[in-house]
Design brief:
Strand content: under 5%
Number of strands: 0
């Protein structure tokens, strides 16, 4: 049932390549024993995160990249301190709907309105909200738009 809901949901928002057209593939995978429906995941080892996907990576790439570089250099304290800033920027985006907010700011930054195009169920944030967020990012974190 969960797979059916997810696949039909993909079709409903216009993402057909990940919709019900994939049903035959999932049935095949179940028959081959590659997919086990209704299984509860079990944590076998908890060794920390291997990585993440961030809705703010396109706008905060400089600091995110610096955190990674600091980690690779073994400068854990500096990385941890900068990660606090990266996290607070990410949390700020949560108050504005992360994907629409990011796209609106990218449109502002690049002067390309095509960034404002969103797929359902997303809706654009208002110009006032974009300006408000841009001002907070500028004043608190030094972002330029």
């Amino acid at each position: 049932r969960t797979i059916a809901e997810r696949l039909s949901g993909s079709n409903l928002v216009g993402h057909d390549s990940h919709g019900i057209a994939r049903v035959p593939r999932y049935v095949e995978w179940m028959e081959r024993g590659w997919v086990f429906p209704n299984l509860k995941p079990e944590v076998v080892i908890d060794a920390g995160a291997m990585g993440c996907i961030s809705a703010t990576a396109n706008l905060n790439s400089k600091d995110i990249s610096k955190v990674i570089d600091l980690c690779h250099s073994g400068k854990w304290n500096e990385a941890e301190e900068l990660q606090k800033k990266v996290k607070s920027v990410r949390l700020l985006f949560q108050d504005y709907a992360p994907i629409p907010a990011q796209k609106s700011l990218l449109a502002l930054q690049t002067k390309n309105s095509l960034w404002n195009n969103l797929r359902p169920p997303f809706k654009p944030i208002s110009k006032d909200k974009t300006t408000e967020l841009a001002n907070k990012l500028r004043d608190s974190y030094g972002f330029q738009f």
